[in-house]
Amino acid sequence: MNRAIISGIGVTLPEDSLSNEELVESLNLWVDRENATRLADGLDPLQKSSADFIYHASGIRNRRVHTRDGILDPDRMAPRIPARADDELSVQAEFGAAAARAALDDAGVDAADVDLVICAGSHLQRLYPSIGIEIQREIGAQGAAFDLSLGCSSAAAGLHVAFNLVRSGAHRRALVITPELITAHLNFRDRQTHFIFGDAATALLIEAVDGDEQRAGRFEVLDTRNWTQFSNNIRSNFSYLNRAAEEDASRVPTEGNLIKQQGNKVFKDVTVASHRFIVDFLSEHGRTPDTVRRFWLHQANARMNQMILKLAFGQEVGHDRAPMVLDRLGNTAAAGAVIALYENHRDMKAGDYGLLCTYGAGYSIGGALLRMM
Ligand code: COA
Questions:
Q1: What confidence category does residue 82 fall into, taking pLDDT thresholds of 50, 70 and 90?
Q2: What is the CATH number of the domain that holds 271?
Q3: The whole model's pTM is what?
C-alpha cells in the first residue's frame, strides 16, 4: 500500500453575494403579492421570512452566489444563467476547472501528471458526458474521470474513493473536484429553505508518496470512512422522469421538484449520528476527540456543529478547534468542510491531527483523518 497525501487544495468563491436581508425582502414581496390572490380565493396566507430568524436558527448572514441576476426578482426568483452551446465549456465544468487549477497551483503539479479526476458534488449539471471528463479535458489531465454524488458528503466520498485508489497503486495523482452550484436548484419562494445555500467550488489533489517521504505543511491522509442511512428529510425529486409523470409531456415542471428539507428533523438525526461517527472513527485509530487539533465540519448550521462537538467532547468547543465559514458563505453543500480546511490549517504543526467530517442528504456522513507532516 502507498501512503497518500493532500498535496494541493483549491477554492473558488463567486464574486456575487446576497445578504439575509436582501433574500427576505424579495421573498416577503412575493408573499404579499401571493397572499392578495390567496385571500380572494379563501386560502390560508403564506408566512413571511425573517433575517433575524435565519441568523439565529442557522448562523448564516451572507452567501456567495454564482449568478445574482434574477434571484431577487419576485417575478423570477431563480438565477439567470444562459444556456451554452454543446461545444462551449459547461457552466459547472468551468466552475470546477477553476478550483482544480487552484489546487494544482497550490501543489506545484502539472495537470498532465494527474491520472484520475473525480467530480464529486451534490448537484450535477447533467447525466453525461460526465462533468468530470469535461474538466479532465479542460485542464489537460490524463487517465480517467467520472462523476460521483452523495449530497453534502460528496467531497468526502470522492476523497474516500481517491484515497483508496491512490493507496492501492491504481492511480498516482487524483483530483477530487466539488463544483457546488446549488442556487440554481434552490426554491427561493420556500421560506424553509430559501436562505440555506450558497455556491462554491473546491478541489483536493491526492497524491501517492514513496517510503517515509515527508512534505512539510501538507497532510497525510491516514484513513477515510463513509456511512449512509436512507432518509427523505432532505430530498430533491428533480429528474428526467418529471416530464414522464405529466399528462402534457412537453411540460417539465420544477415546482415541487426542487430541494425540500425538514430541517429540524435533519438537525436531530444528523447531530446524533455524526457525533457517534466522529467518536467511533477516531476510536478505531486509538484517538479521542481531545487529541485532534482541528475539526473541519460540514457547514450547514452553527448550532448543530456546536452540539455535535459538545456531545463528542463532553464539553463546549470553540471556533479555533472547529472553524466556521458558513456565516459569510452559507451552506455550500459538499464544498463547505473543504473551504474550512483550506482557510484553517496553516497554523498547524507537524504531527497535529485533524478530522474532516461532512453530513447531509442520504443521510450520508463522510470522514477523513489527517495528520500534518
Ligand atoms: N423565517 C421565519 N420563521 C421561519 C422561517 C423563516 N425563514 N422558516 C421557518 N420558520 C418558523 C417555522 O415555521 C417554525 O415556526 P413555528 O414554531 O410557529 O412552527 C419556527 O420558525 C421553527 O422552525 P424550524 O424549522 O423548527 O427551525 P429550526 O430551528 O430547525 O431551523 C434550519 C431551521 C433549517 C436552520 C435548521 O433546522 C437546520 O439547519 N437544520 C439542519 C440542516 C442540515 O444540516 N442539512 C443537512 C445538510 S444540507
A1: very high
A2: 3.40.47.10
A3: 0.97
